[in-house]
Amino acid sequence: MDIDWGWIGDHTGTLGDHAVIHIRLALLPVLFGLLISLPLGVLCRRWQWMFPPVLTVANILYAIPSLALYMVFVQYTGLTEATVMIPLTLYSLSVLVPNVVDGLGSVSEPVRQAATAMGFGPLRRLLQVELPIAVPIVIAGVRVAAVSSISLVAVGQLIGQGGLGYDILRGYQLTFQTQMVAASVLIVLLALVTDAVLVVVQRLLTPWARARGAS
Amino acid sequence: MITFEGVTKRYPDGTVALDDVSLECPTGRITVFVGTSGGGKTTALRTINRMVEPTGGRVLIDGGDVRERRPAELRRGIGYVIQHAGLFPHRTIEDNIATVPYLLRWNKKKARATAHELMERVGLDPSMARRYPFQLSGGQQQRVGVARALAADPPIMLMDEPFSAVDPVVRGELQDEFLRLQDELHKTIVFVTHDIDEAIKLGDRVAVFQTGGKLVQVDAPEDLLARPADDFVAGFIGHDRGIRRLSFVPASGAPLTERDVLAADAPVERAREAGDGWVLVVDGDRRPLGWAATGVLPSSGTVGDAALAPIGHTFTVESDSVRAALDAAILSPSGRAVGVDGDGRLVGVADQHDLTAAIATSGAGVAAEPADTPPAEPVKGGAGD
Amino acid sequence: MNKLWNQIDLSWTWLTASAHWHGDEGITHRLLQHLFYSFVPLLAAALIGLAFGLIAGHTGRGGFVAISLANVARAIPTLGLVLILAVVEFSIVPVLIALVALAIPPILVNTYEGVRNVDEDAKDAARGMGMTGWGVLWRAEVPMALPLILLGLRTAAIQVVATATIAAIPGYGGLGRFIVDGLARNDYQLVVGGTVLVVLLALIVQVVFAALRRLVVSPGLLGSARSS
């Protein structure tokens, strides 16, 4: 495999621009997904019967190829960033909702009872006790969702919105390996850096948590 | 005063957790709910802070129905300690203890100062204030749980098997400190346990619950031991309830003698005069050294030269119970217990017959005081040592 | 909404027209290709993921490395990998390699976590009764970790089935062919029809794994585990 280092040197600017777009396209959906899955997860904890159907719907959405989902949304939102971000948001739900439910479930019964007995109302208990204790498991889900999202964005280039996906597809069309490899390696690096940042965020947010396995 | 008036809890599936329970938990005293599992003791406890709503009857605090108060507010005024402490894993020790003060909107400085003060009170090093619960041992966590319940200085404390999850040695320490704390604080405490020994050690009054949520007896611990209301209570207390009652008979009533006691510098002939058996050897300060067997004394010299058998443990005459004295007698090679004063100096010796006589004359025999007299303080402290 | 309904109607017509099911360009042939593209990588990933997951989980060593490698694998953009390899070698192998990389992380992570989280007391009891390392693994750890292991396999299978469509981009077959061709020709009927087939396949995978779970997981473990 021949890598043309000169080309990379000449194109750090464009690659950087594409990387910024890439990160935005990948991470905003995870943020939206988190905002949706938190209330959804709380509801699923509150009414247990809701969880299986919600999970099944999330799993089915997950099974739709991203390419196909992009095509469906193109007709409504055009060749815009939204068309890429909506499917990614839906995908993130299939990871985040179960993790929010598990996280809330990790609050032990004595803790819940102690909170009630000390005079926490249901809302205050949720915000000050249950959600903070759920943080490590929720962040574990965010890590998986973020990394997957970053590697999935590239496919969006097929509708013209793919961040570094542009360089992969362009390089393929020109059979110019350097551009493809550089973009792919950058995507892996973005994912790993994002993952590392999330690990640090978790350490800072939850100094009380014993070392848990990363998953 | 907490009053139960015909409190009943019947679940929709027909199970009865509490069956027409009426009792009073006097202000400033420890009332222990004890019984078999499924006896409804925890359910009864939880009706007080409205964690369980009765289906019949009323629970009153100082004459006011608890249902007239909003649950959250009611609970902030009642301390609650549970078996596994239920500490918030995401908060430091000081913030755990200050939970209720924060809810009551105290300022942070005052809340934390209170937390530090309470840590010392319950025997925790204040340097642990910034640690998290997982960094503490089970016993330490339980102390934090007690401190947290005390933080807003509530007049009432509910304790649901608070010491059950720790090992027996730590449990004993926690119980002793709990009694010491109560001597200072005089809270109205309702304490749930399945351990009859704990109930008798801690309770000013003990309420025995039977499966099906029936309250079968409420009495001071010594009365419970003296006159169990029925076979269930007798069986629950166990076959050694006679021995346990001796914990409530002060050893100071036992007749003590100085027969067969010799100083270490006495000649062996004096010991031989004592006849067949044992003499107690004491030093010049009257501290017991050991038992000398008269059959195997050296031919000459002092009794101090003889091989002495160890005393085992002594009992402290002013503070120990007859139970401790009797135990000392049983473990002693001579069959006699050695009573000492607070400084460890000999007061006198008593054998098992003397002690039995003390039991008979103390009034702790079959007849006992009427049930409505104030409960006697159990004699604190175990065997003297 | 009307537009969507129209499409579904059109796709239904497309799907049910018998002519579309036959021949080298037909649905049957594409479906078989798709199954082949999915099954081979899944099998390879299962062998790799289970082996490393079981070893790391059982010995308690190498867990951090296994999880980190899984995370790196997750980060690899499948599209990039397929196209790079396709430039080097024009065959189906690049697609299969990319799908293996995609399927390993969920299998590896779930196997590792499943084995590692088996109740310590149960493992202790197994050793106490005289089981060897292998005995503990096969008779205690694997059966107890099965719900999580199956969950990992299922996640991987669904991801692979959905992602195998990517084979069509460098010019291979499979159900992705309909989607990519439909896209090129602006024929949404073809796109949605292909998508429906992929989703149906994924649903079948779900059902198969639900059945497998009933079949191989001890009922004693299902009480507390999540039901789907």
Notes on the structure:
The complex is a heterotrimer of chains A (215), B (385) and C (228). Chain A has 215 residues and is mainly alpha-helical. Chain A has a single domain, classed as MetI-like fold (Orthogonal Bundle). Chain A is built from nine helices and no strands. In chain A, helix 2 runs antiparallel to helix 7 and helix 6 packs across helix 7. Chain A is elongated. Chain A starts with a helix and ends in a 10-residue tail after the last helix. The relative contact order of chain A is 0.15. The C terminus of chain A is likely disordered. Chain B contains 14 helices and 17 strands. With 385 residues, chain B is α/β, with parallel strands linked by helices. A six-stranded mixed sheet of chain B has the order 6-7-8-3-9-10, sandwiched between helices. A four-stranded antiparallel sheet of chain B has the order 2-1-4-5, covered by helices on one side. In chain B, strands 11-12-13-14 form a four-stranded mixed sheet, with no helix packed on it. Chain B folds into two domains: 247 residues, Rossmann fold (3-Layer(aba) Sandwich); 110 residues, CBS-domain. Helix content of chain B is 31%, strand content 23%. The two termini of chain C are 31 Å apart. In chain C, helix 6 packs across helix 7 and helix 8 runs antiparallel to helix 9. The interface between A and C is large, with 50 and 53 residues. Chain C: It is found in: Cell membrane; Membrane. Chain C: Belongs to the binding-protein-dependent transport system permease family. Chain C: InterPro entries: ABC_transp_perm/SBD, MetI-like, MetI-like_sf.
What is the gist of this entry?
Chain B is of the alpha/beta class. In chain B, 31% of the residues lie in helices and 23% in strands.
Total domains of chain B? 2
Strand order of the largest sheet of chain B: 6-7-8-3-9-10
Q: Note the main sheet of chain A.
A: none
What is the name of the CATH architecture of chain A? Orthogonal Bundle
CATH class of chain A: Mainly Alpha
What percent of residues of chain A are in strands? under 5%
Give the fraction of residues assigned to helices of chain B.
25-40%
Amount of helix of chain A: over 70%
How many domains is the backbone of chain A divided into?
Answer: 1
Mean pLDDT across the residues of chain B is: 86
- The chain-level structural class of chain A is mainly alpha
End-to-end separation of chain B: 39 Å
H/E element string of chain A? HHHHHHHHH
Largest sheet of chain B: 6 strands, mixed
Poorly predicted regions of chain A: 211-215
Membrane topology (chain C): Multi-pass membrane protein
Subcellular location (chain C): Cell membrane; Membrane
Main location (chain C): membrane
Family (chain C): Belongs to the binding-protein-dependent transport system permease family.
